[in-house]
Amino acid sequence: MKNNFPVYVRVPVIFFAVFMVMEYFIDSGDRPAFIKFPMVTVFLLVFLFLLIAVEITWKAVDTITYQLLTQDQKEALLKKQNIRFQDQAWYKNLMAKLTKTQPLDNEGQLLLDHDYDGIKELDNNLPPWWVYLFYACIIFGVVYMVRYEVLGADNQEIELQKEVAQAKIEIAEYMKTAPDLMDEKTVTLLTEPADLAAGKEIFITNCAACHRADAGGQIGPNLTDDQWILGGGIKNVFHTLVNGGRDGKGMISWKGTLKPKEMQKVASYILSLKGSNPPDAKASEGEVWVEESAVVAAK
Hints:
The structure is a single chain. The protein is built from 13 helices and four strands. By secondary structure, it is mostly helical. A two-stranded antiparallel ribbon has the order 1-2. A two-stranded antiparallel ribbon has the order 3-4. Strand 1 and strand 2 (119-122) form a beta hairpin. Helix 1 (7-25) runs antiparallel to helix 3 (38-68) and helix 11 packs across helix 12.
């Protein structure tokens, strides 16, 4: 039997349509659903197997049915199948309803008196699809004018501004609970022993070469006193770790090596060393740092 779409087109189209629907509706985060959930892969493989099995069965039934036909029925079926798509009755009826074209035999009744160098004009009615589209545009224009010009609904620019403002609020809320997206505005001081122990390990591994294992200072400044070159406090120390120190002679940026959560632990550990007074510490550099909260409390 003849099909408008061959099997090698129909099977992939159906399979990938189901595949895309599952990927759209299944929440799998940043990974495809068929990778994150093995059962999705199993379902797709079973579905593909059944799809091929149905096509094989369908083809077998068509073949058997065709063999049971008489010779006259076979010739009639082949003749029907060889009719062009444009010549089929349903297509002609559809186009007639959409265009309301007149038969060629009626052109004489539609001719106007205009004659331009032998070119004559027919007085055909506008196609219904064009007329309906024109009316739809008028209705859309009226609704649009009333909604935006009369009732004062938000236009595209105002909608964008509101969406951007809402996105900033959502990002700020998300960053409060997402350590890997932390910055100097949202970082907080850690005081738990486990966090400080982790910060100490990171400090010894990455920072001791310049600041000594006891943070007394060597190439880098002493980190145990109350004077800071680029400002103290968790936010300033975190900012220095992320962006590096002074240009040309300061500490490198660690944002390519350490994660924000790791830098938070290191900064918290460094601040916990204040007043530890290691032996042979390097002379103090910078200015005395006092937390703003302490200044406010003193007032």
